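lol so apparently i was supposed to do this last week
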Amino acid sequence: MKIKSWAEPYKIKMVELLKMTSPEERKAAIGKAGYNTFLLKSEDVYIDLLTDSGTSAMSDRQWAGMMFGDEAYAGSRNYYKLEEAVQSIYGYKYLVPTHQGRGAEHLLSQVMIKKGDIIPGNMYFTTTRLHQELAGGTFRDVIIDEAHDPDCEFPFKGNVDLNKLEDLVREFGAERIPYVSIATTVNMAGGQPVSMENLKALRAFTNKHGIKIIHDMTRVAENAWMIKQLEKGYKNKTTAEIVREICDLTDGATMSAKKDALVNIGGFLALNDYDVFEEARNLVVVYEGLHTYGGLAGRDMEAMAIGIRESVSDDHIHARVGQVHYLGNLLKKAGIPIVKPVGTHGVFIDAKAFLPHLSQDEFPAQSLAAELYLASGIRTMERGVVSAGRNKKTGAHNYPKLELVRLTIPRRVYTQAHMDVVTETVVELHKQREQITGLEMVYEPRYLRFFQARFKKKE
Ligand code: F0G
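anyway here it is w/ F0G bound
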C-alpha cells in the first residue's frame, strides 16, 4: 500500500500562546499603525503571515546546538562548523558570515560593483536592488515576461530571458556587467522557481562573455524541490543533490539564512573567487564584525549550520512547500485571484483583480492587507507600488505590473487549521470587496518606504 497523504516530519514539543483580539481592538491597532501592517505590534496579531523571514520554528537539535555556542571573539568553533556546512552542502569555497542577507548584499555590492555598472537580475528584490544602487550600479530586470503575468501558469516563472540579457550585453558591453544576480526562488514574482535548464543556458552564456553569476540562494531548497517535482530528469534526485547542482552553476551567493536555513537570524556571503572573497573578508570587519562571526553570536552560527542540513531534507521540504500549496489550492478553488502557479514560500493575492475598482495610486494591495488584519487578525504584506518605491531619476512612483498581497508561511510554525482560518477570512472578505476603499500615503520614508510608510483611508 502507498499512502499519498503527507504530514509534517516532526511533532510539537512546545507551543507559543496567541492573543485573540476583538474587531474594535483591531480597528484601533491598524489605525495606530497608519494602515501599515509592518507597524502593528506583533502581540496584536493572531496568525502572522507577514514574512517567512526569521520566523521559523527551530528544531530541538538547533536549540540544543545553541548551548554549544563558543562566544570567543575570534575563531569560534561554530564558525568552522558553519564553514564546513556551507562547503559540503552548497559547495562554495569561501565563507563570510553576516548578520543577515542584506549584510551580504552590502559587502558584495561594494566589492563587485563600480559606478555605472549594470546588474541584470531575475526581477528585483528590495534590499538587493538598493545595495546595487548605493554602490553606483543600475539594476535591469531580465526575467521572462511570463513572470509579470499573475495568471500565466508557466512552471518556471523565475527563468531569465537570455534575449533580454543579450540585449544588455550588446548595449553596455560585458565589461560593465560584473555579474548577473539570480534568485532561487523569485520572491517578488510570487515565489517562482528557476529551472535547471535555464540556469545551465545562463551559465553557458555568461561563460562566453566572462560575466559572473551571483546567486541569491535565500530559498534554494524550495527551488530545488520544484525542480524535482517538475523538471525532466530530476524526479529521482534528492533535494540536496539538486541544491548542490544549482550552486555549482554559480560563482558565489548571498544568503538570508532566516528563510531556507531555519534560523531566526543569520546570513552569509559565499564565494568561489579568492580575490573577491579577500576583499569582502576585509570589508566585513568594518560593517558586520570580525570575519569569524560577522555580526552573529557563536550560538547563531551553530543553529545555522544545523538548520542548513535540515533544510535540504526531502521530508522537510515536502511538508514546507506542501503547506503553502494546501493554502494556495484552497484559495484557487474558491475563485480568489492569486498568482499562479502557487509559489513555494507564500500565496500571493492579485490585489488589482481582487479590488478592480481601485487604481494603483490608491494602493490596493496595502489596503487589502489592512482589511485582512481587520477581518480576523491575520497579518500579511504589500508587494506592489509601495514596495516598488520611486524612480531614481524622475521621482515618480514605480508602477509594478504585479500589485500583490503576500500571505507568507513561516516554516514549521502554523497548522493546517490555521490555513483554514486564513482561507475563510480571504473568501469572506472577497464577498465584500466592493466596500473596500483606497488609501492615501501621509508619511513616506526615503529608503525602503514600505517598512515605515503611513497611510489614511481615502475619503
Ligand atoms: N533576498 C531575498 C530573495 C529575500 O527574500 C530577502 C529577504 C533578502 C534577500 C534579504 O535578506 O532580510 O536577511 O536581510 N526577504 C524578507 C521577506 C525580508 O520578507 O521577503 P535579509
